[in-house]
Amino acid sequence: MPDDPQHPTPPIALFPTAPATPVRTVVADDNPVVRAGLTALLSGRADITVVAEAADGREAYEATNRHRPDVVLLDVRMPGMDGISALPYLVPIAPVLMLTYSGEPETVQEALRRGADGYLVHGEFTADQLAAAVRDTARGRTHLTPTAAGALLTHLRDANAHVNPHVPSPAHPIPLKGLSQLQPSVGQSSSDRSRFQLSAREAEIMDLIASGMTNQQIAAACFISEKTVKNHINRIFAKLHSTSRSEAAAKWLGTAPSSGRGVG
């Protein structure tokens, strides 16, 4: 039957419209089964395409140099040149997202020091979260799964034992790529947390605020949404009687003129 001119039938999209510029990705993993699985998973997304695969760090560099992808997915333990050794050669060309079974704190920290833009540990993310992480890495956003986020916090807290803390400017957050150059590495003890009446999660977020991270970076590090981060920050500000990130950080670090390491 012809369409009713008063109520025309809307057009039917037979195929979803793919983005004009899909995220071009290189997948590097020495396990051919894992590599094939990742390629199939990502290639099934309309806005992601795998342009090359690699079985070790050298192949990853060659593929990245040839194809100039938007993101490199990189395993840690591979024969020949491993992922950690390959990072200094890859990061000048493309953002690198570590995707590995290796969750040791030292490995996570070294990968971040060498310029990795994120770190995902197998078993700690869904297929949709992986695809989102690939998209976000191409946009300059960081993703850390819980094990990697824990390693980052361990680094901050351990460094605080022998580094004099100071408050960074919130307008110039410290990027994850600068972990090896962190000056204000912070982390409060449970007694400090109790003094401010912060929960364990609030203390964790306050550590990251004081290190100079933005809400977006904190959300990635803690694997929560930016809205949840904002809710935590509102409660933290109320408990620290602060109206800005710099004021809260100063009180948290004990550098406010009259903070006395307490609330006020």
Topology:
Blueprint: E1 23-28, H1 32-43, E2 48-54, H2 57-67, E3 71-74, H3 83-90, E4 96-100, H4 105-113, E5 118-121, H5 127-138, H6 146-160, H7 190-196, H8 200-210, H9 215-222, H10 226-240, H11 245-253
Parallel strand pairs: 1-2, 1-3, 3-4, 4-5
Helix pairs in contact: 2-3, 4-6, 8-10, 8-11, 9-10
Question: How does this structure look, described?
Answer:
The protein is an alpha/beta fold and about 260 residues long. Helix content is about 45%, strand content about 10%. It has eleven helices and five strands; from the N terminus they run E-H-E-H-E-H-E-H-E-H-H-H-H-H-H-H. The chain has helices at about 30-45, 55-65, 85-90, 105-115, 125-140, 145-160, 190-195, 200-210, 215-220, 225-240, 245-255, and strands spanning about 25-30, 50-55, 70-75, 95-100, 120. The protein has a five-stranded parallel beta sheet with strand order 2-1-3-4-5, with helices on both faces. Helix 2 (about 55-65) runs parallel beside helix 3, helix 4 packs across helix 6 (about 145-160) and helix 8 packs across helix 11 (about 245-255). The longest helix is centred in the middle third of the chain and has 15 residues, at about 145-160.
Task: Name some characteristics of this structure.
264 residues, alpha/beta, elongated
User: Beta-strand percentage?
Assistant: 5-15%
pLDDT under 50 segments (min length 5)? 9-19, 163-189, 258-264
Give the end-to-end Cα distance, rounded to a whole number of Å: 75 Å
The geometry reads as elongated
- Structural class label: alpha/beta
Helix % is 40-55%
Q: How would you sum up the major sheet?
A: 5 strands, parallel
Mean pLDDT: 77
Number of helices: 11
Rounded to an integer, what's the Rg over CA atoms?
A: 22 Å
Order of helices and strands: EHEHEHEHEHHHHHHH
Would you count the extended β strands for me? 5
Largest sheet, spatial ordering of strands: 2-1-3-4-5
